[in-house]
Design brief:
mainly alpha
């Protein structure tokens, strides 16, 4: 195919990815917000489009779609544009919308936006100093300088999410970790909640009666003189009346207790629904997946520990290595190169789809948790920054899952980076994240039954 046809294919796919990002922005992120900045929407959609295009080029690399020169050109162009967005455009507009929300700086928001962008560039550039990520011959304006620093941030983020996900997934799916919840437990907690609400109502009635008594005696018209008079009027009870301050403190404590009891009751209902769901066919399927991911988690932690201790990085992709070991063990005739290509394509495709889906779900939950009408634009830009860095780093790591003959263009495009460092760094952060998640979930799981057992 000619270069023009190849470019048409790439341009069409980028329009499709851009449209998907636009629809995701409209119908997921900003469906509850009327005020939308189109520049934010365009930046998010463009970032998503070029991020997905990198994954598309990886698949084209394995399948041999497009000419080699066309793939190389689009790799270079795509990488240049995504770095331009992540390092220059998104940080600048993030600072611009932050400054726009501050009234005192509104008139000079362009100046302060530039200052914030320069501050970001300083820390972004200094990030590369403590890491062995570059060759000494790379110039200060080379593409390797940018992608190496983006890679450190993205790989760190990927390792944190992967470590937590590898532990949280079996904890969420496996029925083994579900505590036993009965109807009696729920009824007991609901009874405590109703008793607490009755006590709150009773005490508020007492406060209302006391205020009416004070008003009927005309004491409300006696204005206290001086600071100590005000303190005395609040803290000292009138003969025949209630101490309103003391009762208010008791009401506040009971209302806080009622909130905790309500949350615990909702948690018990959710746990009971999960127990009933685990008895269904779909629940048993996810329970089986939980055991599978538990084994994967233990294996991944073990291999990360071995890689860190012995400072090793695999030279052969896992698919080819696994097929070679199986063929040698069984002693059969098998075309390793042919099947490794197809299985690698399937594996890389699964990694790409699950990465995109998992990241979009995480971004949506994160956005709903912390966004507001004023901060929504800033948060979307930060999510676009995270998304772009995440996908660029995915390319760095997926490269190792591909057979050697398919890594050539990717290696040439990314430049002479220290690829082994990124894999070791991923193992270190993954191990820390997984072990921290195990400790956190263990403490949370251990504390939950004790909390519900307290009278």
């Amino acid at each position: 195919m000619s270069f023009l046809v190849d470019s048409s294919i790439m341009f069409t796919s980028q329009i499709f990815f851009f449209g998907f990002g636009w629809l995701f922005f409209m119908h997921q992120l900003f469906k509850d917000y009327e005020v939308r900045q189109y520049v934010v929407q365009v930046i998010f959609s463009v970032t998503f489009a070029f991020s997905c295009t990198m994954f598309e080029l990886i698949i084209f690399e394995i399948l041999g779609v497009l000419n080699s020169s066309s793939r190389y050109f689009h790799w270079k162009m795509n990488l240049f544009i995504i770095l331009l967005i992540l390092v220059f455009m998104v940080p600048f507009y993030t600072g611009y919308f932050i400054v726009s929300n501050i009234r005192l700086l509104h008139k000079q928001r362009l100046l302060f936006s530039c200052l914030l962008w320069l501050t970001f560039m300083y820390f972004f550039w200094k990030l590369g100093d403590p890491f062995p990520i570059l060759s000494p011959k790379h110039g200060i304006l080379s593409i390797e300088q940018l992608i190496s620093r983006v890679g450190v941030i993205g790989v760190t983020l990927m390792a944190l999410l992967s470590g937590f996900g590898a532990v949280n997934c079996p904890y969420t799916y496996m029925s083994y970790f579900l505590r036993n919840v009965t109807e009696a437990d729920i009824l007991t907690l609901e009874r405590r909640l109703l008793q607490t609400m009755d006590m709150i109502i009773s005490k508020k009635k007492r406060m209302a009666v006391a205020r009416r008594t004070i008003f009927q005696r005309g004491e409300v018209h006696e204005k206290p003189s001086g600071f100590w008079g005000m303190i005395r009027s609040v803290t000292v009870s009138v003969p025949g009346s209630e101490n309103l301050t003391l009762i208010q403190q008791e009401v506040d404590a009971l209302e806080e207790l009622s909130r905790q009891l309500f949350l615990e009751t909702a948690d018990l209902y959710a746990t009971k629904e999960r127990i009933e769901y685990s008895k269904t066919f779909k629940g048993k399927y996810f329970n089986f997946l939980g055991y599978f991911f538990s084994i994967y988690c233990v294996w991944k932690i073990f291999m990360a520990t071995i890689n860190i201790i012995f400072d090793r990085v695999g030279k052969t992709d896992p698919v080819t290595r696994g097929i070679e070991i199986t063929v040698n063990y069984l002693g059969i005739q098998f075309d390793v190169k042919f099947w490794s290509q197809h299985i690698s394509f399937i594996l890389v495709g699964i990694i790409i789809v699950t990465s995109i889906r998992g990241l979009l779900i995480t971004l949506t939950k994160f956005f709903y948790a912390i966004s507001s009408s004023k901060s929504s634009n800033v948060i979307v830009l930060l999510l676009a920054q995270i998304m772009g860095m995440y996908f660029v780093s995915s390319v760095l790591l997926i490269r190792m899952s591909m057979p050697l003959e398919y890594r050539t263009i990717i290696t040439e495009v990314l430049g002479e980076l220290q690829f082994n460092f990124y894999h070791r760094w991923f193992d270190v952060i993954f191990l820390v994240s997984a072990l921290s998640s195990i400790l956190f979930l263990y403490l949370a799981h251990k504390q939950a039954p004790e909390k519900h057992m307290t009278p």
